[in-house]
Amino acid sequence: MNQDVNGDIERLLALLNGALEAIRTEFTSVWFPVQIGLIGVAAALAFGAMMAAKRSRLIAVGEKWPTIARQLLAAVLANGGLIAFVLIVAVFRGAMLGLLPPDRSYLLGVSVSLATAWVAISILAALIRNHFVNRVVAISAWTIAALSILGLLKDATHWLDAVAIVIGGLRISLLLLIKTAGLLLLTLWAAMAASNFIDRRVRSSADLTPSIQVLISKLIRLTLVTIAIVVVLSSVGIDLSVLAIFSGAVGVGIGFGLQRVVSNLVSGIILLADKSIKPGDVITVGENFGWVDFMGARYTSVVVRDGREILIPNEDLVTQRVINWSHSNDRVRLDVDFGVSYASDPHAVQALAIAAALGVKRVLARPEPVCHLIKFNDFSLDFVLRFWIEDPVAGVTNVRGAIMLALWDSFKREGVEIPFPVREVRLADNARDGIERPSRAASQPG
């Protein structure tokens, strides 16, 4: 192995010496400054053309084009200066080839090739909307193209493959890492793009319930990502059987450090499968009341009345008591407790309460509201008014408040008194004397 490494180092040094010699020869040639000057002129003319194109607002031409066409047009306009540079330099080189040997315009040819490669790669990469992935793909592809244009790709590939370590039965080199990272980036982006497309199609289907839509989307995304990883590992020559030791370590990590994460993941799948909670439901978990907005792999997002978004772990929704106000149907019965004085007619109070409830817009006429006398209290007759609504998503506290205001107005109009406790305090003789004695002492002159 040491002999192979020494040989690789010697070849690398020879490559560098050859490149330095070619650069020295090129730099010492009288045609080198001429080509540099022509490249500078081309860059100045291209910059002027680019500024003129920006002022002409050509981007407005494709405002009504399809999305992909608009993206390609924007990429072409963004590289307009470089395209003009390529055309101008190509004209200069064509003129020099007609008058001089090809080696006198070598630098112009390299410039044209490198710039053309960047333009083509940049325009194609514009189809990738993710900015980070776009830049990584464009730079990586252009680097490979530049090495190929300069004739260094084979030697660079050999050197990257020579720098390697062996772990178990797996040989890991720099070339393998770069290839794996690049392919993973592309395949995962393709898998996520495909899953997003399928997700939009699934969510537009009216035949599927919201929970089934989310479940199908999650399973498809997980399947596509798994396939992408397996395909990449197989394509770069990694034997998946050698990863058994790593899978065992991952299993131990899941058992100790990731058990809550896995529990939330499994709980999320259970919730989606049994349809107990789905997006759009109105639920109460502990003291939190709100609407299920999003169900993720680890948590469920619940939006409460004041606009806050509470992230509840899926495990809590499985193990804790959850009130789903709209599980099987949207009808919900609510209770309002109140009391009146003993001077009131309880039969008339019941009729007034039912009429007041029916006067509130959100209260259902069927089932009809009912009012029951439930207790003879110390200072009041206690009643409970029960009524039904079918839109808990609009809130339950506000409808209770509307019922109480309706009861207040009705009782005021009919003269029904709502009692309040009266406390009578009696003082013993010794306590009264203790209070009056300091008062007399304070009234005497000092």
Describe the overall structure.
The protein has a 5-stranded antiparallel β-sheet. It has 15 helices and 10 strands. The chain is of the alpha+beta class and 446 residues long. The chain folds into 4 domains: 2-162, no CATH class; 174-257, no CATH class; 265-324, SH3 type barrels, CATH 2.30.30; 332-414, Alpha-Beta Plaits. The model has no long low-confidence stretch (mean pLDDT 77). The chain is elongated and about 125 Å long. It starts with a helix and ends with a helix.
Please give a quick description of this structure.
The chain has 446 residues and is an alpha+beta fold. It contains 15 helices and ten strands.
Global shape: elongated
Number of strands: 10
The DSSP helix count reads 15
Number of domains: 4
Would you spell out the secondary-structure blueprint of this structure?
Layout: H1 2-28, H2 31-55, H3 67-78, H4 80-99, H5 106-125, H6 131-149, H7 153-162, E1 164-167, E2 170-173, H8 174-203, H9 210-235, H10 244-256, H11 259-274, E3 282-285, E4 288-295, E5 299-304, E6 309-313, H12 314-319, E7 322-324, E8 332-340, H13 346-358, E9 370-376, E10 381-389, H14 397-414, H15 429-443
Antiparallel strand pairs: 1-2, 3-4, 3-7, 4-5, 5-6, 8-10, 9-10
Helix pairs in contact: 1-7, 2-4, 4-5, 5-6, 8-9, 9-11, 13-14
Key features?
single chain, 446 residues, alpha+beta, SH3 type barrels, 5-stranded antiparallel β-sheet, 3-stranded antiparallel β-sheet, 15 helices, elongated
